[in-house]
Structure to design on (633 residues):
């Protein structure tokens, strides 16, 4: 087990190294990055000076090493618009994004699993057909458009839910203000519902299909037949014999799914004016604040890598075949 | 190349063409039986027609502004009873229907070319990884891991911000973003094929590595790749729309569905629904059609993949 964890961790380190390299090179690909930091009317002298101060006159590999060195100390560079550490700006917005992602994940899984089971149990009926048609549609709707439609019809038309706004829960929690987080929690939900549903629909659909097909596969296995022939009720067969194994592919996907939802956030936050990293990135795009975009990319990727590491280890713990492969 | 391989190739060709005819016939029958694929193919044909004949079909110039008829709702008849703007106009008085028709081009162009680039690149690298194994395999698959560690949309945003927007950059980034999917499948399939007798036979006949990969292995691993490509076009079109929505797609002078949705955002509060409903429905129909097509192709080409 430990060799597996070590090998897997070493891989993750390699991947993170690659991520930093690509992010670093991205900045260089747009030409001399010095011009991002000086005004358009800057004199040649001034440009030279800025280049030297920021270290852009050094050879690339030296610049990269100092970039990684800075990274290890939590320094990704300064945001051009906020004039402070880009990492700090990103981390400040992070709780709001995580709230949205976790809520979306809950919606996706808590709907996908029952829908998948239902469709598998009712295989070939019109119920199965409708669930699968819904899932197919859910995978084809652009999430930001779904957001616009919800705003238009549910928010403005019916007036059921607020179309923007945010009550922080995780932010106070991280700062240790548990009382504030607790009282804010119920008030936060109405604001979370539409954006979270918007982000979750694709995952919900994909996972409903995944649960259905793996359920169908498991239901055809010998041990399920054995359980049935012992006279176990259909409910018990489905819920305890089949479901546990059918959920395995879903469990392996959870890490990826979280990362996927996280990237959906970038676009959807813009639609709902959600004060998270996504809207931050959107604004950074418009202002060409490349260090800020870099910081967001690195933070998101790190989370993604660490999550996948955790999921793999948990999976290896559950299924010995994985760690021996 | 020796005569023996030439003969073998000729023999296989004629059998292949017969297989193709059978395959097409089977595909046609299955399409007539199932209603959804027929619907999907009709939508996609319409998309192709709109892309090719856009300028002839569009009733107006998609960029012509008309301040006098700004923000007109759909199906409003003017004084003479004629409907000038069937789908209404946007904030600059441009005809929504014409913009929708022109927008089809970008979606199809970006979707097809990006998938072609990603598919070719990924299949080549994946086959190499699977065939050679060892070092080559390690390097290629580690690269794949690194790319998968990025949430793709952020990676695309980063490069588009740095490199600047434009159709070519968009296509390249979306294309390169897709290679991993193909590489993984091509690699797995190649590993399962490389020890088969016909590959051994080609090797024994002295065929070059390139020829073994292209002529012996590729035809046998193509089916799952085609299925993936169909789903992939759908997801590329979705991503393109999202990037255009963020203002990172093609320049604003070219009408795109994602860009139209971005412009519609400010009009939502005022209840101008037509500006956001029509482009979104267009994206949804096209993506849905490629997804349905992918499902159907999967069942047709490789029933074992069903539900995968």
């Amino acid at each position: 087990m430990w060799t597996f964890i070590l090998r897997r961790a070493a891989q993750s380190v390699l991947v993170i190294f690659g991520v930093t390299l690509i992010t670093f090179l991205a900045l260089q690909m747009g030409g001399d990055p010095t011009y991002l930091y000086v005004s358009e009317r800057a004199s040649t002298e001034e440009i030279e000076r800025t280049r030297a101060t920021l270290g852009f006159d050094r050879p690339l590999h030296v610049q990269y090493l100092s970039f990684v060195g800075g990274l290890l100390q939590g320094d990704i560079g300064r945001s051009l618009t906020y004039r402070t550490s880009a990492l700090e700006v990103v981390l400040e917005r992070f709780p709001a994004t995580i709230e949205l992602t976790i809520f979306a994940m809950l919606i996706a899984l808590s709907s996908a699993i029952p829908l998948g089971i239902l469709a598998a149990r009712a295989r070939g009926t019109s119920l199965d057909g409708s669930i699968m048609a819904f899932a197919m549609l859910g995978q084809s709707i652009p999430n930001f458009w779904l957001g616009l439609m919800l705003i238009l019809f549910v928010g403005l038309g019916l007036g059921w839910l607020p179309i923007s706004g945010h009550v922080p829960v995780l932010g106070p929690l991280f700062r240790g203000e548990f009382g504030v987080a607790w009282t804010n929690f119920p008030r936060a939900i109405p604001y979370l519902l539409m954006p979270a549903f918007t982000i979750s629909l694709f995952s919900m659909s994909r996972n409903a299909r995944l649960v259905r097909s793996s359920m169908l596969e498991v239901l055809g296995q010998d041990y399920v037949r054995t359980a049935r022939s012992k006279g176990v009720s259909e409910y018990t067969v489905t819920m305890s014999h089949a479901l546990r194994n059918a959920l395995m592919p879903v469990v392996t996907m959870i890490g990826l799914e979280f990362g996927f939802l996280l990237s959906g956030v970038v676009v959807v936050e813009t639609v709902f004016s959600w004060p998270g990293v996504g809207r931050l990135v959107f604004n950074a795009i418009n202002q060409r604040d490349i260090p800020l975009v870099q910081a967001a990319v690195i933070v998101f990727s790190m989370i993604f890598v660490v999550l996948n590491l955790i999921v793999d280890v948990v999976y290896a713990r559950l299924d010995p075949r994985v760690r021996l492969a | 190349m020796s005569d023996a391989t030439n003969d073998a190739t000729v023999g296989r060709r004629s059998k292949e063409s017969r297989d193709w005819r059978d395959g097409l016939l089977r595909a046609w029958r299955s399409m007539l039986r199932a209603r959804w694929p027929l619907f999907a193919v009709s939508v996609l044909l319409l998309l192709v027609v709109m892309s090719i004949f856009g300028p002839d079909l569009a009733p107006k110039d998609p960029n012509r502004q008309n301040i006098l008829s700004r923000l007109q709702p759909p199906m409003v008849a003017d004084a003479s009873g004629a409907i000038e703007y069937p789908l209404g106009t946007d904030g600059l008085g441009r005809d929504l229907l014409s913009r929708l028709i022109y927008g089809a081009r970008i979606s199809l162009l970006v979707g097809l070319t990006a998938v072609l680039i990603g598919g070719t690149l990924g299949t080549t690298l994946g086959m190499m990884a699977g065939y050679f194994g060892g070092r080559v395999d390690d390097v290629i698959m580690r690269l794949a891991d690194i790319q998968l560690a990025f949430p793709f949309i952020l990676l695309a945003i980063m490069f588009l911000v740095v490199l600047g927007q434009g159709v070519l950059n968009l296509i390249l980034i979306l294309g390169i973003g897709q290679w991993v999917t193909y590489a993984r499948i091509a690699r797995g399939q190649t590993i399962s094929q490389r020890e088969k007798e016909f590959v051994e036979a080609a090797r024994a006949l002295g065929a070059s590595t390139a020829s073994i990969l292209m002529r012996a292995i590729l035809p046998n691993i193509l089916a799952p790749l085609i299925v993936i490509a169909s789903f992939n076009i759908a997801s590329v079109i979705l991503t393109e729309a999202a990037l255009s929505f963020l203002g990172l797609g093609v320049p604003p002078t070219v009408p795109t569905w994602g860009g139209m949705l971005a412009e519609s955002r400010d009009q939502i509060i005022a209840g101008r629904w037509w500006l956001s409903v029509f482009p979104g429905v267009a994206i949804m129909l096209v993506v849905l059609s490629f997804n349905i097509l992918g499902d159907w192709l999967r069942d047709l080409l490789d029933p074992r993949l069903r539900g995968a």
Observations:
- Chain A touches chain B through 57 residues (CB under 8 Å).
